[in-house]
Design goal:
single chain; about 180 residues; mainly alpha; 11 helices; elongated
Length: about 180
């Protein structure tokens, strides 16, 4: 039954038949409560029907299961756009999600709309995957050097590390303080 409800819901959603799509996708979620795809499609149908508030718990379940799901995060912020609690409740997820520049700007604008200017600016300056932690990177350098019996000045210690845009200098600053 679950797969049939899901298929019917998908087809009806694609055809723009929102009420029948919501019914079928609700049945799919009822039959398969852990099916995140069904919850995502139901959320989309509910939001297209102007029932954003009803989509929020389904989106929350997706985010709780897959914290970096950028699509669910965008939908969640949109569905709860009137409240600062909505965007703030997923702020840490947004910081660490793999996001495009367009996604970053979307979330930055959402933060501005709810008056969170400091967080909006911090987000603009935070690369996808979260802020760079120079101390953790320095520890990784030291661990690699120790494990491979290398000197920290050996370029092999730094292979595979993303140390562009001033990150190398930050790591070297931390290492010099530890010397």
């Amino acid at each position: 039954n679950h797969d049939l409800f899901l298929a019917m819901g998908r087809i009806r959603l694609e055809m723009g038949m929102l009420s029948p799509a919501i019914d079928a996708l609700s049945d799919a979620v009822r039959e398969g409560p852990t099916d995140l795809v069904a919850r995502g499609m139901l959320s989309e149908a509910l939001m297209r029907a102007g029932r954003d508030g009803e989509a929020v718990p389904h989106l929350r379940m997706i985010i709780d299961s897959v914290p970096g799901d950028i699509g669910a995060l965008r939908m969640y912020v949109t569905a709860s756009s009137g409240s600062s609690e909505g965007v703030l409740s997923v702020y840490d997820n947004i910081l660490t999600a793999d996001r495009s520049e367009e996604d970053t700007e979307f979330f930055r604008q959402a933060l501005i709309r709810v008056g969170e200017y400091t967080k909006a600016e911090a987000l603009a300056g935070t690369p996808p995957g979260g802020p760079f932690d120079a101390e953790a990177a320095a520890m990784e350098v030291l661990d690699t050097a120790y494990a491979e019996d290398l000197d920290i000045t050996d370029p092999a210690v730094y292979e595979g590390m993303d140390l562009e845009g001033g990150r190398m200098e930050a790591v070297l600053d931390v290492l010099s303080m530890q010397a």
